[in-house]
Amino acid sequence: SDTGMVMCLHIGTGFGALKLAPDAPIDNLIILACQISSLAVQDLLWGPAMRTYPDLKFAFSEGGIGWIPFYLDRCDRHYTNQRWLRRDFGGKLPSEVFRDHSLACYVTDPTSLKLRREIGIDIIAWECDYPHSDSIWPDAPEFVLNELNNAGATDEEIDKITWQNACRFFNWDPFSEIPKERATVGARRAIATDVDTAIRSRKEWARLFAEKHPETI
User: Could you give the residue range(s) of every CATH 3.20.20.140 domain in the chain?
Assistant: First the structure.
């Protein structure tokens, strides 16, 4: 952001916010991780940290963006319909305050990207999530570009979502150390030809590691 501090929230309030059955599969936690961010946003937007601290910004890591359109519609409807609660958003709608303070990060969200302008083209940031299992490494550049192209994103929108929004939000110049022409996917891959990006089973990886590092056995 231009001014102020950025608080990075990883999966919102955490898995502790979910009350699942004792024998619930781990799939429930992984799939519902993005929805947890809406609980954190509710606390911050209505709590009211976003109104009390105008320079405080929030980056919602791995929160996805699919929940945002419905959530903001619901907030604005509640604010305008329940005026007897006398909430003060400084002359703005809750959705406007949310966009003033937030950076919404996603790994893959093909359907929601079609609503990128409604969500806010300046508050969306793509993330790789390497080395977690949600990551789309090692083909992330091709994957994210294909997803954005399928959503009909323009070159300007692609630049915003893939790097410009994040750089502005964190007030970071990515080309201060590496010139832009040397920071492209092709340029970075060209200097990393010795990096093994093959996808292997854990058993195969362990075997190869043991061969290269017999002293660890």
Answer: 6-172
